[in-house]
Every structure is written in structure tokens, then in C-alpha cells.
Amino acid sequence: GENVEQHPSTLSVQEGDSAVIKCTYSDSASNYFPWYKQELGKRPQLIIDIRSNVGEKKDQRIAVTLNKTAKHFSLHITETQPEDSAVYFCAVSDSWGKFQFGAGTQVVVTP
Amino acid sequence: EAGVVQSPRYKIIEKKQPVAFWCNPISGHNTLYWYRQNLGQGPELLIRYENEEAVDDSQLPKDRFSAERLKGVDSTLKIQPAELGDSAVYLCASSLHRLAERTDTQYFGPGTRLTVL
Asked: I need a surface site. Which of A12, A27, A40, A41 has the fewest CB within 10 A?
């Protein structure tokens, strides 16, 4: 089955700096790669996603890059703000709709 | 448009008691997921429905857990009897999935926080 590894498990950054989280996966049939943000006590919220036919996608301060050959994808947050503090999860899915999640990254943005 | 609805939001029970969770997905979404999320971890799939059919229940502990989605819309997840290790947040999610085609975005409900004493 699919195996998703996410690093780092915790990330502390100064406000205004960039944050990068990386996920690797094992199943080459995976073709959909969403990222979720989860604040304490809240539901996971989709923040950006990318499909296998695209190498990079950007939405304001957030971007995702995908390297299908190496089977890894990364979340990039630029100009971090205190409200970016949360747990971020990557996920991987195939055409059959089965999702596998990473273990999460606790991001702390300090003013 | 209403999002995924779950109830109850919180539940505290003693071990060996039964408990049930309810989920109503986004209107028109044919795929429904139940996940368990332990503290500090990512969601782990328990069961996935395509309409009323359970297409993936390999991770569901069938000795004590059961689920149903009788009319292909809302769903219930039951634990009987509950154990201490079942304490977690139970998340429901839904998506519009077209078989063998692209997977669409999965939306989560607020979850039910279960505490087993």
C-alpha cells in the first residue's frame, strides 16, 4: 500500500521567513496531492492541491511543487505570519479516491 | 452551501459502553470517508463509501466497529463496546469521485471528539 512520510515534524520560523515542508510517497499510481491546514480543535482545511500533470502551483503566499520521478512534493509558505501557525498535513490519493495522510508538521511562527 | 455536518461534537463515555457518530456529507457528494485522528497524528482511514457501498473497510476493526450508509447519503459509525484506546477525534469527509477518473477535493467535517474513561 501507499506510504507517506512527512518532514519535519515541527518547524519554528520567524515571522516573515519562509517555511518548507516535504512529503515523500511510494505508489507511482498516485496522482493527487493536497495539503491541509489544521488549527487546534478545528477540522483540516484544504489550502492547496496539485495533480500529477502539473509540476508547480502557487496561490498567493503558498506554493506546492511536485517531483513525480523522485516521488516527493513540498509545501512552501513565504512571508510567514503568526496566523500561519498550525499543523499542516500532506495527503496522497490515486484515481480510486483513496487518501493516505502524512503524520503532520507543527508550524510555529514567532513574531 | 452547507459543509460536512457531524454530531455529536463531543462524547464522553465509560469503557465497554456503545457510542455512535453521525455524518451528513456535502449535498451531491457520492464518496464518504470515516477517519480516526489520534493526538499529534494525521487522519487514518477507517472506511470509505462510494454511494451506499463500502469499497474500503480494510482498516476498520470489525470486532467492535461498524458503519452504515443505507441510502447513500448520511452515515453512522458505531463502536461497541468502546475501549480506552478508542479515545480520538473521528472525522467524516466527503468528495465527489468519478470512478476511475480524477479524484476531487475532500472536505472534512468538524469531527467528534471521543473520550473513553
From this structure: A40
pLDDT over threshold 60, residue B90: yes
Report residue A83: phi and psi, to 5°: -75, -5
Residues of B in contact with A21 (CB under 8 A): none
Q: Considering chain B, what percentage of its residues have pLDDT values greater than 70?
A: 94
Decide if A45 and B108 are in contact by the 8 Å CB cutoff: yes
CA distance B90 to A32: 23
pLDDT given for residue B97 in this prediction? 72
Is residue A75 within 8 A of residue A35, CB to CB? The reply is yes
Q: Cβ contact (<8 Å) for B45 and A98?
A: yes
φ, ψ at A102 (rounded to 5°): -75, 175
pLDDT of residue A110: 94
Q: Does A46 touch chain B (CB under 8 A)?
A: yes
